[in-house]
DNA sequence: TGGACAAATCTTGCATACAAGACTGGAAAG
DNA sequence: CTTTCCAGTCTTGTATGCAAGATTTGTCCA
């Protein structure tokens, strides 16, 4: 099991902890989610863990292999395409019908873009992953439709899993530029352009995937055995900022 | 508890049985879903019933009132607006990007429209409700994105609950005409028109709602005490076919 | 007659126990 | 040395038991 131990105390719901761990890429697709370990970690019985798993399963975030265990979903290449297709439709539709940006929304978006810049500068990979997904959720929130926001939240989680599976390097600057362009279009009060930019942005991200890549069943082991080039003090983010 | 006893034997999963009951309007919003009764009905323990409830709760189809019980969701007026808003975005987006209709798809759609006509003629209300929702799910299936299909399936279930709460009469013919128009536009290979028609269709349905209506807490009792004007041999469908 | 209180009964919340399939490791046989 | 098999151990699947809050109903008192 991966790094779930950094979650706040057991006040957090189990669902949220797991989704958060995915949204910030602290947990990999295919990671095992042992009922016993989660139960111990949250100081509850397996019953509640299972209930959380059932909810997450309904959201396509975890899957169960009968009598073998629960695992963080590993979206197939086909599923990946469908997720991006769904996001294109939903996000472009949201932006197209987006009302005029309120002052506070504009402020919040700018603050978010600034956060992205800082995370890129600080080479804080987890935070960056989190922010990159959160941007789209924020847009949905501003659009003011909680139903679609909820849908997008799940799709974002799945997107992150997809990225982790099929994307060798994160083109953070490219994504950041895309976000900036969308915000600019919104501020120019041109929702049609914003929608088009969102589609292009998602296209770019999808094109950055290598959907022919077979998932590596040894990935876990490989990671564990490698001397930690992932140390935070090193400069692994050079790759990430690479565009 | 309402009419869930007509479900096929316990081979059916509990989730599916409940969703089916909603999709065909055999069960009302706000209906109580007793764990014990469901457990007895499906000859399983409460554990499995609870797991099904957890999954359905994640899909916003049932809600739990702590230590009071599980109930079929009663979407608020605000939620209703958001659901229709979400459907407008998703369905119009789907139609706009819909590929050219294959022969078998065209055939299937025509068969569906014919089914609608028959259900209207036979005044089969349950079947009609089912078909009306199913039309949109079929479109999504033809569009070929299972992710969005799944989302729409849940939204359709919620739409039916909304209709049952806020719609006094079902304008079946109007809806049927809308469906026909959408199919015609698709056959004319005009996805843009199909998308526009879908938006208008959903607008019409939403406008047919009375979102100011307060839910009647005595509805159940009222229904039970009234001498059955709802008898199948009577002609209640005259109201339904009313446009 | 009306209202307040309390016991009885219902509901879910949660933990636990046990069953059964899947995996692992080692021993035995070829 | 390789392969096969089997026991041990781990996993989830499911049922059950008990606790605690919510509701109902009956009773008593004013």
Outline:
The first copy, chain A, has helices at residues 14-23, 35-42, 46-58, 77-96, 103-122, 125-143, 146-166, 172-187, 191-207, 219-225, 237-241, and strands at 32-33, 62-65, 69-72.
CATH architecture of the largest domain in chain A: Up-down Bundle
Using a beta-carbon cutoff below 8 angstroms, give the protein chain pair with the largest interface and the number of residues from each chain: A-B, 29 and 29 residues
Stretches with pLDDT under 50, minimum 5 residues of chain A:
5-11, 228-243
Oligomeric grouping of the chains: homodimer
Strand content of chain A: under 5%
Q: How many strands, what sense, and barrel or not for the largest sheet of chain A? A: 3 strands, antiparallel
The average pLDDT value of chain A, as a whole number, equals 87
CATH superfamily of the largest domain in chain A: GntR ligand-binding domain-like
Shape of chain A: globular
Verbal overview:
- 2 copies of one chain form a homodimer.
- By secondary structure, the first copy, chain A, is mainly alpha-helical.
- Chain A is built from 11 helices and 3 strands; from the N terminus they run αβααββαααααααα.
- Chain A has helices at 14-23, 35-42, 46-58, 77-96, 103-122, 125-143, 146-166, 172-187, 191-207, 219-225, 237-241; strands at residues 32-33, 62-65, 69-72.
- Chain A has a 3-stranded antiparallel β-sheet with strand order 1-3-2.
- In chain A, helix 4 (77-96) packs antiparallel against helix 7 (146-166) and helix 6 (125-143) packs antiparallel against helix 7 (146-166).
- Chain A is globular.
- The model of chain A is unreliable at 5-11 and 228-243 (pLDDT under 50).
- Chain A binds a DNA duplex (30 and 30 nucleotides) through residues 34-36, 44-48, 50, 64-70.
């Amino acid at each position: 099991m991966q790094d779930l131990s950094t979650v706040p105390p057991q006040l957090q719901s189990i669902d949220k902890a797991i989704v958060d761990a995915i949204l910030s890429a602290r947990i990999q697709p295919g990671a095992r989610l042992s009922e016993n370990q989660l139960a111990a970690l949250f100081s509850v019985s397996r019953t509640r863990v299972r209930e959380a798993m059932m909810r997450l399963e309904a959201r396509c975030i975890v899957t169960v292999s009968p009598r073998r265990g629960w695992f963080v979903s590993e979206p197939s290449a086909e599923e990946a395409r469908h997720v991006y297709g769904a996001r294109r439709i939903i996000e472009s539709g949201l932006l197209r019908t987006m009302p005029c940006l309120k002052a506070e929304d504009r402020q919040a978006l700018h603050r978010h873009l600034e956060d992205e810049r800082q995370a890129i500068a600080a080479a804080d990979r987890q935070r960056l992953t989190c922010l990159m997904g959160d941007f789209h959720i924020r847009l949905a929130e501003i659009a003011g439709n909680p139903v679609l926001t909820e849908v997008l939240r799940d799709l974002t989680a799945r997107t992150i899993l997809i990225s982790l599976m099929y994307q060798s390097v994160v083109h953070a600057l490219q994504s950041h530029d895309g976000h900036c362009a969308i915000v600019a279009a919104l501020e120019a009060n041109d929702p049609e352009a914003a929608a088009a930019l969102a589609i292009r942005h998602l296209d770019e991200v999808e094109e950055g995937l290598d959907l022919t890549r077979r998932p590596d069943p040894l990935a876990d082991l490989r990671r564990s055995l490698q001397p930690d080039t992932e140390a935070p003090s090193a400069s692994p983010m050079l790759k990430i900022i690479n565009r």
